[in-house]
Amino acid sequence: MTLRDIAIAGVGCSEIVRASDRSVTALTLDACRAALADAGLGPAHVDGMATYPGAPDSIACFAVVEGLGIPGLRWFEDIAGWAPAAVAPVIAAADAVARGSCETALVFRSTKRNRDRPPGFASAARIGGDNQFRAPFGDTMTSQWLAMWARRHMYEHGTTEEHLGHIAVTFRRHAILNQRAPLRDPITLEDYFASRMVTTPFRLLDCDFPVDGAGAVVITTLARARDLPHPPVQVLGGAMTTGTRPDWDQWPDLTTMASKRCADELWARTGLQPHDVNVAEIYDGFSWLALCWLEDLGFCAKGEGGPFIAEGNIALGSRLPTNTHGGSLSAGRLHAITHVIECVEQLRGAAAERQVPGAEVGVVSAGGGTMAGAALLARAR
Length: 381
Known about the structure:
By secondary structure, the chain is of the alpha/beta class. It has one domain: Peroxisomal Thiolase, Chain A, domain 1. The protein has 13 helices and 11 strands. Strand 5 and strand 6 (202-203) form a beta hairpin. The longest helix has 16 residues, at 24-39.
């Protein structure tokens, strides 16, 4: 089998809130049970599993196996380290089903923030690797690393802070229609500029919203998915790439991320082109990442992302509805698992007020800077 013989048959979420009093295990099990119920399956049907534990804010596959009462797995993978977040285990699980390593895989991503330790490396007693050379200068956060890239893009192409503001405002407008989104109060460009500066040029509203929650998807063969309750969503292809260097501050061209190479791979592997896509659920850990994904996927030319966004091309009802659930900026930082779930719901025609009419092909992406991953999904025919 190939990836085109694979489908997403079920999706599910736990509660997604700023601060939950429930454990990350409980949240994860809620999402996994919801995804299995959506697929019309039970724990005994699962023989594969994948997750991106990321930082120590989640749990590994073994905890879910025990918590759900799954008899055992034929294949599993905990993808740690630098990776394109929740898109990575989705691609890995689809590959595993395609090659026969398992028949039904459960993929999840969950987060429970550690409130005793701030993010970044500055709070560590000892810092090794490349970061030992950055930490003395206070350069310990992804926001700081990507800010350099954003400033270079602004210098080269005339991208403005107002362009970034349009991203935040548009995604919030979409989140208002999403009952699961934790941020649903409307914002304006004035609100954007009034939000505090985090790392120039990123304001608070340029940054993803940390939450506690979980999401999960069920992946199986297209043939089997056709016998399950919902219209299957076909996996047309996926790609994960790095660039030439692992160092964010030593990248040869700070105007282009690994997402450009990833996008080129995705189009080459699937035979599709940007004009085939009806809906885009792209990574927005920071607003500028969404702008770069739009450029690198070819929805607009390099350097034209800002005007493309300001002209309204990513809003619902426009040329390319993007992050129709609110994205990480307003629907919460779950490392793109909710981007995958939203794409599936759009292609099923089940996105309620957010629905993109006639959506047949969608792209999901994750990552930024030195690594990237993306997948093309389609309504199965």
